[in-house]
Amino acid sequence: MRLVRFSTGDGAVAVGVVENDEIAELANPTDRVPLGQPLELSGRRWARSQVCLLAPIERPPKFLAIGKNYAAHTAEMGMPAPDAPLFFNKQSTCVTGPTDDIWVPRDAASVDYEGELGVVIGRSTRRVGVEEALGAVGGYLVVNDVSVRQWQRRSPTFTLGKSFDTHGPIGPWVVTPDEVPDPQDLRIRTWVNDELRQDGSTSQMVLPVAEQIAYLSQSVTLEAGDVITTGTPAGVGAGFDPPRWLVPGDTVTVEIDGIGRLENRVIAEPA
Fold first, then answer.
1. Whether 159 contacts 88, CB under 8 Å
2. The CATH number of the domain where 43 resides is what?
3. Which of 49, 70, 145, 224 has the most CB atoms less than 10 A away?
4. Domain total for the chain?
5. What are the tens digits of pLDDT across the range 85-134?
6. What's the rounded Cα separation, in Å, for the pair 32 and 174?
7. Count of Cβ atoms closer than 10 Å to residue 9 Cβ
8. What are the φ and ψ backbone dihedral angles of 203, each rounded to 5 degrees?
9. Is 238 within 8 Å of 230 (Cβ atoms)?
10. Closest C-alpha among 87, 86, 31, 90 to residue 63
11. Which residue in 235, 262, 240 sits closest to 251, CA to CA?
């Protein structure tokens, strides 16, 4: 099942279930797609061409990310492998939709892309074991962990460089776990314009999804709607010599097989 959040031509926001080229509207609250709760059909249906897809979760309670989780990406960044899992926060105000614009900030030009698998927590979870961890998953989505490298490098926490407005495209929907039999067997690709930059697989993760959930839950209570973005494969702009940053006029596309596709235009930050 693909759970989606969308706006209609009159600006109204709704949630629904994608059924081929249509969306069956739900009567559930509209700030996020429903997770772990009964679905209530409103009786209205929309053609996908009639609506604009929004971020499936408008403001995740927590937006957690892991760094250096693909060995080849760690190497291209010229960094040592971490001694322990390297988690950090993206502030939820960076979240934007699957086709919304990405801004290049006025005072920071080193804007980079990172195509990643996102995991959406479906229920409150604390101190879960690895064997049971995937039972806490409400679904999966695509994330572009957009990063301002010069700000990221100012602090070991990474948070400010990862949290600029519009630097958290997610979507295009939440795919429920029954449609993702193995989250460690998904191809991830990122294009800038028509050039393929990243082509990896979640099988290359250092710390698989279940272990990430188990590790995090030893420290914090994970809540329904939390998003964990699980690391990026090699091929980011910072890995080129010279670096190849995103500039206004670019289009970034991130696609994960079986999950979906983001396509975001890059523009200068509005005045």
1. yes
2. 2.30.30.370
3. 145
4. 2
5. 999 999 999 999 999 999 999 988 899 999 999 999 999 999 999 999 99
6. 10
7. 9
8. -65, -15
9. no
10. 90
11. 262
